[in-house]
Amino acid sequence: MVATFGRRFALSLDDGATAAARVKGRTMHPVCGDRVEAVPLPNEPDWLITRLLPRANELTRPNLRGGIEVLAANLDALVVVTADFPATDWFITDRYLCAAELMGATAAVAFNKIDLGAIEPASEQALEEYDAIGYATLRCSAGRNVNMDALFDFLAGRRAILVGQSGVGKSSLINRLVRDSVLPTAAVSKARREGRHTTANSVLLSLPNGGAVIDSPGVRDYAPAIADPAGVGRGFREVHDAAAACRFANCRHRREPGCEVKARVADGRISARRYESYKRLLANTERLARR
Ligand code: GDP
């Protein structure tokens, strides 16, 4: 599945060709990155998607009806794009990283628009904290084509999604990455034209280094859909590491005695901002779980 526009799709076929497609009925919800079975329709250019194959992983968020919305599937990597203009909400960045952790996807934080001057101290600190816990961080400018190699190299051989607040430069980064290498195929254009009345659309673009990147619509806020609040701790790798040494196996790292996470926050080994982020997402997830 290389593109979705509402109920219109574009498929990459086994022979490398691209085809426009639709699904039968309303129960199947393919997303970008999905593998599907499809058959050509007689006397029509469209293919019909008949089956969704099992997913290796899903990038999710809760929807307004108490269910789960899948944004993309079968991802190796996730890149959170950040910037100082508009100012980054680092809590949202943490929630994307949490999602990547739970999906088993490799995550990186790209700080864009470095051409606009010195990086804000709070942003620099956040980037250093991510570095310290093992996330790849890179500073670049899509506008001025600075350090784009680092992003391109990170994506090599991986299927990734670029996420982040609207306006940070995701589309500009993708345009820079795919310039001269990928043109929208007729099938993508057709799906886009016929699905133009919907705002939700995503496109998977192949890169010449064997990577692929999903361009998805920006979301104003983000939190992963986590059914069991205990999952939140697994999504913060430094919290998860410390949790093994907590007195209680089911420690949620709030007021429990003998909590190794709190001890590490107190002596600075865990970032106070990341810990706050963990507690906010935990409270949020507990609230949703009670509904
Ligand atoms: P998106 O909403 O995350 O896809 O962001 P866009 O790619 O649409 O970019 C939002 C705005 O930021 C546009 O006006 C871009 O021209 C601008 N922009 C993107 N990258 C850079 C950059 O590296 N430097 C500067 N100065 N502006 C940029």
Keywords:
two-stranded antiparallel ribbon, 291 residues, binds guanosine-5'-diphosphate, 11-stranded mixed sheet, 13 strands, alpha/beta
Structural Rg: 20 Å
Small-molecule binders here are: guanosine-5'-diphosphate
On the 0-100 scale, what is the average pLDDT?
91
Alpha plus pi helix count: 9
Give, in spatial order, the strands making up the sheet with the most strands: 4-5-3-2-1-12-13-11-8-9-10
Structural class: alpha/beta
Task: Name the shape in a single word.
Answer: globular
3D architecture notes:
By secondary structure, this protein is α/β, with parallel strands linked by helices. 31% of the residues lie in helices and 23% in strands. The protein has helices spanning 90-103, 121-132, 148-155, 170-178, 186-194, 230-235, 237-243, 260-266, 272-290; strands at residues 3-5, 8-12, 18-23, 36-40, 47-52, 58-62, 68-73, 77-82, 106-111, 136-139, 159-163, 201-206, 212-215. Strands 4-5-3-2-1-12-13-11-8-9-10 form an 11-stranded mixed β-sheet, with helices on both faces. It has a two-stranded antiparallel ribbon with strand order 6-7. α1 links the parallel β8 and β9 (106-111). It is globular. The two termini are 33 Å apart. The mean pLDDT is 91. Bound molecules: guanosine-5'-diphosphate (GDP). Guanosine-5'-diphosphate (GDP) binds at residues 112-113, 115-116, 141-143, 164, 166-172, 218.
